[in-house]
Amino acid sequence: MSKIYDVVILGAGPAGLAAGLYAGRARMSVLIVEKGKDGGQIAITDEIENYPGQIVEGESGPSLIARMTEQCEKFGVERVTDVINDVVLEGDVKKLISAKGEYCGKTLIIATGAFARPIGCKGEKEFMGKGVSYCATCDANFFEDFEVYVVGGGDSAVEEAMYLTKFARKVTIIHRRDELRAAKSIQEKAFKNPKLHFMWDTVVEEVGGDGILSEMTVKNVKTGELTKIVADEEDGMFGVFGFIGTLPSTKIFEGKGLELDERGYIPTDDNMKTNIPGVFAAGDVRVKSLRQVVTAAADGAIATTQCEKYINEME
User: Fold this and answer.
1) Residue 299 annotated in active site
2) Catalytic residue from among 72, 104, 121, 139
3) Is 135 a catalytic residue?
4) For residue range 143-170, what is the model confidence (pLDDT) as tens digits?
5) pTM across the whole model
């Protein structure tokens, strides 16, 4: 049988790395399994300004994550890069199963994160973190006195658009319908905001620019007319924020006894406990009101301390 770790962590974003760090410092045997690069969504963020105690001027997502990874290595956290295709969550030993074999733990921390539903336009991937964003709280400061466009029409899109008006010179909501889907109370506030404008019956076809977002082509869904939007010459750029929903990375857990909400997120209590003893969830993958690096890291720390408590009670 494979080695049985005290803690197995699935995912190496801020939540998973924080969990690994706390487990390593507690002298627990710990394995982090990640299918790709460390960092999750934060790895595509060019600059970070809202992480408490930040010590590097112009901190980027990748640089912050690199230091988190180094901390884990310092405290003996084992790592493996692999794609998990099945799980066993019930019982005393939790198993992650891949084509290479099994990874077993007395406890499991699910830190697989969530990802923003893409806008779906040409050039989107290339300009992520270079003008295209999915988090107003993270990136609003970078667009102070610039023009910003928000894609979406639901509660989240309109609320985030109103938040952006505190920073941007002008905010335009681009919505594929001729009316918003947001709650009426939210709409009333939005329509009263003088910095908020609306582009109805419209979708984004393409974004572009010379290294930074400065051009966008939009399409009227009723007439088919294409319009090219170019950044103000003095600004040289603008921002496009996509708020058409996020998707949790939980498909592998469907039908495995783990409780998921109607959107696929994992409900937990304040101690990151799921409905299955010994299985914890941390970070963006769980049901929560704020998805930020700082809250993910806190979740990871809490989850690991609860893993230690769970193991002590079982022995």
Assistant:
1) no
2) 139
3) yes
4) 999 999 999 999 889 988 999 999 999 9
5) 0.75
